[in-house]
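chain below, 72 aa
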Amino acid sequence: MPVIYDKKYRPGSDYCSYCHDGKSFVKEMGLAEMRARVQGLLKNRKAPALIRLYMHWRLATLRRWRKSAGLR
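prediction:
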């Protein structure tokens, strides 16, 4: 979720309030689980296939999952 849409976002944080409470992740979730969750949400919102594909790729570039995806 882009942090500009997070009403509880704390400036300076790398994560939205749905994922991180300021001390730790709210729910431990692997990259595969997050991808499945995001794909489901995007399908429900009838997002175009290109957007779903982009988000599938983009999640691996986020700091939380970079190492597990083999990225720096």
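The chain is about 35% helix and 0% strand. Residues 3-59 form one domain.
thats it, cya
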